[in-house]
Amino acid sequence: MHRFQAWRAFLCATATLLAAMTLSAQPAYPNAPVTLVVPFAAGSGTDAVARAVAQKLTERLNQPVIVDNRPGASAQMGASYVAKARPDGYTLFMTTNTSHSANPSLFRQLPYDPIKDFTPVAGVGELPFALVVPDSLPVRTLPEFLAYARAHPGSLSYATPNSTSLVASETLKRLAGLDVMGVPYKASPQAMTDLLGGQVQMYVVDLGSGMRMIRAGRVRALGLTTAQGSALLPDVPPIAQTVKGFDLTSWNGIFGPAGLPPAVVQRLNHEINAVLADRDLQEKLSVIGFQVWPPAGPEAFGRYVNSQLTHWTALIRQAGIQPE
Asked: Which fold has domain 129-242?
């Protein structure tokens, strides 16, 4: 009996020692470049935010953080890629409400589950969208545009390169009683090109993609999706001031694949929050109207993602959008 107890104690001690040796042998995270996948094209608002964050995060992690644009299928390609990646912290996902709030109600089948297939890491902030029309359209305010659209039923169209643009446009269409047609696009630059060319007459665009054309006077901003407006466009009112009941927030955050180790999640959350607190970064992002959120833990971000999924599901059903 004593021999058995001694042998068991020896085995336990050996196992503990081996576990400690294995743990100490594991290199500290990160010890290789980190990929930050963006499910939209270069030049989009999310891409601009990702590149600014990646630059600062590179400095804090002492490893390159490389932005990898994987646009297509309304963010499904990028989301699917990350969902299947190894959960080791070296593949991260900078995404928006498109992939995690809207897509589940816009598509009958998705190659990923927005909740089960991802680990929330950190919320980043909000990016206002603006309803813009080409300068050639004879309207200067949102009420004038609504009147013009009602006077020309069935003759106007709007661009939809992402789910935010689609849901915002369809919500406006429902609440304002408009007869306009949606035209899908693969990316924001192509949608803006066709708006300038007159192929479409309305586009709810993120300020990161649209601000240059707005400032150049090539397109006219008539309303903002945010309830508080934007300091970048102080003369452009929130859409909700004209169209009662319009309530839409475009959020941005960082995820990893499901099963990301808690220690990696905490490290990334800490470093990302430190990056977002950087005044230089905040000023850089303010140029495109991006509003950085106060620091919060991964659990709080996860709860927010769940609540936004519920909110956008209701918005899409109320707008009468049928899943593809």
From this structure: D-Maltodextrin-Binding Protein; domain 2 (3.40.190)
